[in-house]
Each structure stands twice: as structure tokens, then as C-alpha cells.
Amino acid sequence: GTELTAKPKRSFYAARDLYKYRHQYPNFRDLRYQNDLCNLRFYKNKIPFKPDGVYIEEVLNKWKGDYEKLEHNHTYIQWLFPLREQGLNFYAKELTTYEIEEFKKTKEAIRRFLLAYKMMLEFFGIKLIDKTGNVARAANWQERFQHLNESQHNYLRITRILKSLGELGYESFKSPLVKFILHEALVEDTIPNIKQSALEYFVYTIRDRRERRKLLRFAQQHYTPSEHFIWGPPRKQKSEGSKTNKKPASPVSIPNSHISKHKKPKEPKNTSAGGSSTGKTTEEKKVEVTKNGEENYQDEQEMNCDAVRQNSDTETSQLSKSEEIRDTSDRNEDTSHSKKDGESLNNDCGNHPGTVEKDLCNTENSSNSVSADLQDNLDKDMLSEGTTTKMKDEFKA
Length: 397
Known about the structure:
Helices cover 61% and strands 2% of the residues. By secondary structure, it is mainly alpha-helical.
């Protein structure tokens, strides 16, 4: 009847708090140069803890076994197990990194710290059986486990004890204690109410990632109902799958665009090798130029210039529009160039687009509106029947 029936939820506060602890409090202001060392002096039995005014030797000798005092007093736990964070007792001061180094060097303080740890384990019904941190049930475990299952404020004390073990050089003591608590809560069902805190807080005080995963796998095997187990690292299958799909996408598109520009112009050279170069018509040359992806627009304009000169006799009505725009010098150059070989003119215009006579190119550039209409009419005439035969006769003449 004490077990929770609803599906548990992860605590954001717990996750944030224990993340800072495992990463050495990255946002905590360390008072390294504060030399009062009150926690170390308390464990040296030089000052009493406040506000009660009791020394450490009196706590270890007279309070041991007095479960009522240990249960109802809420000020001693911050002094027995200090941390680098503020607790409920504002008289207790936080540990500093310098104080931790000095604490580990002091044998007297370490001896009393282990005695305080044994005293609290006995209060919970647990005993320390060796120097490696392994624990087992104490002689009074039934009575103390029942009390621990009901007084849930002690779960905060256990979390503090685990944190302090890691701060003062006893990180290896954490995993045996947490494993024992999980076994009693999930397998033996002696303290079922503690399993939420054990999985939310106790496990995540362990800094070693592998040890945490071992404990979580153990808890997952024995957790009931199994579908309510929500602890552990999140799965990354979807994120990894999306990355693998995105990787091959980028290198495929780049070489395709490169091939389309440089490999296509080679095809018309191979196909035109079998035929005679002098017997090409204007229409065939236009098809070859359109296949070229680098200078398509410029070559097409120059080929239209050749078509205007070659069809000057048959298309007088169309040429009259362009002749009105041309000046007298352009007409003289056109007549002089008409006497040249048609084949050499076509080669100059097609192979050296930058050295073509200025009269042809300037005519196209200066009359953009007229050349647009003229180009449409020329395309229609070039595709009509009988054009190719007229062109051949003109080339022969």
C-alpha cells in the first residue's frame, strides 16, 4: 500500500543539483582563500558545532545509539557531513577546495569522519563490514528499516552523506551503499518507499559514469512495473539516424553540377567527327551551341548575327529594321565582310567570341528590343522547309 501507483516523473531540480555536484560545482563561488577552516577545526575537536554548542567527541560517544536525538535534531548533519553548498543550518559553512585538501591530510579528522559515517549507517539499520565500503544489514535492521521507510526526511540525509563521501576522498564508498539500498527496495521490498529517491538522487551522486549505468541496469531489471522505469540516459537512435542521412547529401550535388558544365561540351565534338565540317548548316550549329553550358547565351547571339548576314537577300523585310538602326560605317563593313568566306566567318564567330567584328555585336547590343523580335522570326524561318537548301546554295556561291 505504500508503493506509488502513478508513473513517476523525473525531477528537474534533482538533475540540475546533482549535475553541478558531479562536475565540481562549476558555477559555485569557491572561497579558497578563506582560512577559518571551521569544518576542519570542528573535526579536530577544537570548536563545537553551532547552534547547539556540542563537540564532535560528544556526538560520536554520547549520541551514538540515541536514535531519538539523531532523528529529531536537524542541525548536526550539516557539520558531520559538510559540502560545498549551503544547507538548512546557516551556522554551518561551506567547504572550500583548500579545506578539502587539508582535511584529507589530517588523520584525526579522517578517523572521526569514518566514525560519524558508521554511526549514521547504524541509525539506518546498516553496518560497514570492510574498508572498501561494502555494507550489510545491521542487527537491528527490521526496526530501523521500518522507520526508514516511514521517515522520508532521512532520504535527504542519505543524499548529503553520499555527497560528502565524494568530497572528502571516499568516492568508492558510494556504489556499495546505493547498490545495497536498491536491492532492499526493489528485490527484498523492505524499504519500498525509498526507491524513488534512490533512483533520483542516490545513483546520480556517483561521479563514475560506468558505475551509475551498472546501478541503473540493476534497477531496471528488478523495477516493477517495468514500463514505469524512466531513469537512465536518453536514447539517441533518432538523432544518429538523421545525421547519417544528411551526410551523403552534400557531396553528391556538387560533382553533378561540375560534370554538367564540363562533360557535355565533349559530346558534340565526338559526334561531328564523322561528318564534314564545311557542310554544317546554321541550324546544326545552333543545336551544338545550345548544348554548351558555359557560353550558351553569348554564342546564340553571335550565331544569330551570322544568320542575319547569310539571309540578307531572302529576308529583306526583316533586315530593314536592323538596317535603320545601323549607321553608314556598319553597312560598308557588312558588305566588305560578305565577300569573305562564310566558313571562316562562322569559325571566327564560334571559336573566338571575344574577337568578332564590333559591327555585328554592337548591332545586337544596341537594338535589344528589335533583336528580340528578330530572333523569334529567325528561329521560325530557320525551322521552316527549304531554308537548309537555300543556305547550302549561299555557302557554295
